[in-house]
Amino acid sequence: MRLVMFEGGGEAEPVPGLLTERGVVNLAGAVDRGYTSQLTMQNLIDGFERLRPQLEKLAVEGQALPLDRVRLRAPLAQPGKILCCIANYWEHAQREPRPLNMFLKNPEAVVGPGDTIVLPEFTEPWIFMHEAELALVIKGPAKKVSQANWRNAVFGYTCLIDVSARGEGRRTWKAGSWLGKSFDTFAPIGPCITTSDEIPEPNDLIVRFWDDGQLRHNYNTDDMEHRVPELIEFASTVMTLNTGDVIACGTNHEGLGALQDGETVEIEIQQIGRMSLKVRDPLKRHWERGIYMGADSTNPEAVRRHRPQGAA
Predict the structure, then answer these.
(1) Reduced to 3 states, what is the DSSP secondary structure of residue 7?
(2) Which of 122, 128, 180, 307 could form a disulfide with 90 if both were Cys (CB 3.0 to 4.6 A apart)?
(3) Which of 38, 30, 43 is nearest to 13 (CA)?
(4) C-alpha span between 211 and 129 (Å, rounded)
(5) Is residue 285 one of the residues assigned to a domain?
(6) What is the pTM of this model?
(7) Taking the mean position of all CA atoms in its chain, how far away is CA 228?
(8) Is residue 143 part of a domain?
(9) Does residue 42 sit in the same domain as residue 93?
(10) The domain that contains 153 carries what CATH number?
């Protein structure tokens, strides 16, 4: 199933829904509504197995609103935690996996389909870039989950754009990763959450990203240096993962480029869906358009796999 939060169809506030081939089915009457959109989705995740028979029936028989009559919102409006992997893909022809590491991204940076990424009004010599990523949606509480039991902690999957303010090389700012990645609007999430039963192998999905129609990212998640079971084990060893938390799996940096005022960007992940956002820069800065041929990206075609032969 594909779960969404949406506005429209007579609903003034975001309500939960099912995204089907017929349109969006309103689940407001089936799910305990929280006082925030985030809590409503967390209630749906926690009660999903109990609700599944009813939801399966609604998916077939429930009244569906056409997509052009609703507005999809971020399916997780303010996760308790957004954990992001650092450098988790085989790239730049390197032949040794880098140590697994993560950072926390500001949950209030979340926006959703149709929203706008707003570049901050700072005059630092930054360039603002996109990182298209598969994101894991957690069902918790999950603590010290072994790789063998990783599925117990993963409710589903969504798309996430890890927008990044970069200085020289791979640094996002003098203070480290979190600051350059945590500005408001720097964590687009959506368009939906695809439940884990729909994606039996998360390490075999195509991730694509376009900037004004130019293909930038185009990679397969089987290129992860540290695969999904290891990410769950690592994160849950460090901290308790709660329902509605998100782990972004990192990106293949080949194909990075600048985000600039007036552009339209799109992310699509196989079996999850596609969403589009606008970019606005109040300072109207300009960088060379296209793929950034710097320390983070060496591939002008945006499609090159450097996975070592026989790598795990």
Answers:
(1) strand
(2) 307
(3) 38
(4) 11
(5) no
(6) 0.93
(7) 14
(8) yes
(9) no
(10) 3.90.850.10
Residues 99, 67 within the same domain: no
What range defines the domain where residue 16 resides?
2-72
Write out pLDDT tens, residues 226-235: 999 999 999 9
The separation between CA 299 and the C-alpha centre of its own chain, rounded to angstroms, equals: 23
Number of domains, the chain: 2
Rounded Cα distance between 245 and 312, Å, is 27
Length of the chain: 312
Tokens of 58: 């609604």
Q: For residue 310, tell me if it sits in a domain.
A: no
**Which DSSP string corresponds to 118-159?**
E-----SS-EEE--EEEEEEE-S-B-S--GGGGGGGEEEEEE
Name the β-bridge partners of 110: 187
Pair 67, 86 in one domain: no
Q: In terms of C-beta distances under 8 Å and separation of at least 24 residues, what long-range contacts does 55-64 make, across chains too?
A: 55/1, 55/18, 55/27, 55/30, 56/1, 58/18, 58/25, 58/27, 58/30, 59/1, 59/18, 59/20, 59/25, 62/18, 62/25, 62/26, 63/25, 63/26, 64/20, 64/22, 64/23, 64/24, 64/25
Q: Are residues 86 and 220 in the same domain?
A: yes
In this structure, is residue 122 part of a structural domain?
A: yes
CA proximity to 104, closest of 70, 87, 81, 123:
81
